[in-house]
Amino acid sequence: MEECILTIAEVSKKYDITADTLRYYERIGLIPAVPRKPNGIRDYDQASCQWVELMKCMRKAGVQIEALIEYVALFRQGDETMDARKTILIEQRKRLVRKMQDMQETLERLDYKIEMYEQGKMTSDYQLHIKDCQK
Predict the structure, then answer these.
(1) Which terminus has fewer CB within 10 Å in the chain: N or C?
(2) d(CA 31, CA 72)
(3) Buried/exposed 42-70: b ≥16 CB within 10 Å, e otherwise
(4) Is there a contact between 72 and 29 (Cβ–Cβ < 8 Å)?
C-alpha cells in the first residue's frame, strides 16, 4: 500500500491548523521534523500527520506545551525513555482531571445562577450572592 504524502496546505486544511502554526510546532519541537523534498518543501507522511493530530488533541485539551515538547524530545531518544514519557502523560492527565473538576464546579455554579434568574429569585441582595458563592 502506497503511503499518502500531503503538502503543508493539505495538512493545514485537514486538521484546521494554519501553516504558520504547523511550522511553529515543528520549529519548537512539538512535532518531530517533517520529511522534506530535496528543494526543502515539507512532505507530511502518515507519521507526521499522526503527530499533528496528537498535538492538536493535546493542545485543545489544554495539555502544557512544555510537557509535550519534552515528550517529543524523549520519544526521539528511543525506547529507553518509555518510563519518562509515561510519567509525563500521567502528570498531564492529573492536571487535566483537576481542570475538568474545576470546570464542572463552575458549570454547576452557572447552572445554579441561571436557575435563580429563571425562578425570579435573583436580587441585588448581597446575602444571596454570598450564599451563591458558598454553594
Answers:
(1) N
(2) 7
(3) bebeeebbebbeebbebbeeebeeeebbb
(4) yes
Q: Are 71 and 43 in contact (CB under 8 A)?
A: no
Determine the Cα angle at 125 with ends 120 and 128, to 5°. Answer: 75
For the chain, the helix, strand and coil percentages under 3-state DSSP, each to the nearest 5 = 70, 5, 25
Structural contact between residues 49 and 14, judged by C-beta atoms closer than 8 angstroms:
yes
Burial class from Cβ neighbours inside 10 Å (0-12, 13-18, 19+) for residue 122 reads middle
Q: Can you tell me the distance from the alpha carbon of 27 to that of 30, in angstroms, rounded to the nearest whole number? A: 8
In tens, the pLDDT along 54-113 reads: 999 999 999 999 999 999 999 999 999 999 999 999 999 999 999 999 999 999 999 988
